[in-house]
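INFO  loader      accepted 1 record
INFO  loader      residues=279
INFO  predictor   begin
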Amino acid sequence: MGESSALARYLAEFIGTYLLVFTVGCNVLSPAGPWAATSIACVLMVSIYAMAATSGANFNPAVSMALGVSGKLPLVEMGIYIAVQLVAGIIAGLSYYGLFGTVFNLQPGPGFGWWEVMIVEVLYTFMLCFVVLNVATARKNDGNQYFGLAIGFVIIAGGYAAGPISGGCFNPAVAFGIDVASAGVGFGWGFAYLGYEMIGAGLASLAFRVVRPDEFFGDPVYGMGQKLFAEFLGTFFLVLTVGLNVLNGGVSAVWSIAASLMCMIYPLAASQEPISTLR
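INFO  predictor   done
INFO  writer      dumping tokens
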């Protein structure tokens, strides 16, 4: 199959991002209850599998940045992807506003402030970008069929764990789509979320270099340092997700915790030469 045209790539990124942000809005504004994060994760998974062969299925400016700075996406293409994704998110926000006639504001959850939002948005955006880099771009994982599942389940892990704190965006297109649509009741948090999420993307790119040295330095051997770092990351996100779900009284705690474990096993253990076992 030949390389997709530029128009096809940009259209795929627009459609995937639009569907994601529109689904976020519909779930928040309708009585989706405990299934909201699962619904959002599912539309992301479906769109990834449908359009990965066309554009790479980023649907997230933070993911595109992580790919760009890791040498997996040309920088010019990265910039165009980010612009298309932000426009798609804003149009999706206006679309659910038109559908429901109401909006919701982007802001910290009750009882939380900017620094709690920063922590969870940085960490779970890191997790999302790190998983994407490992399952969708690493040469040792070429040809796998689980990439969409692993990426989508990050939203289940983080959405339930961090949702009550920040809303669980992990995506500047989602943040700006919500923020612009709700400009009449409050505007500005989208810029803070953008900064937090881009920090997470940058850190994910650095971590990817540590656990996959062969991608950058031609070293096919995974030393003890890579194995220990992989074990640290996997255990950290598992325990973080456990704690946040318990403390926020999440009704889908086990589902979210299991998702966090699965999401870290796929990038760190399921390769031709395992980095770690995470067990």
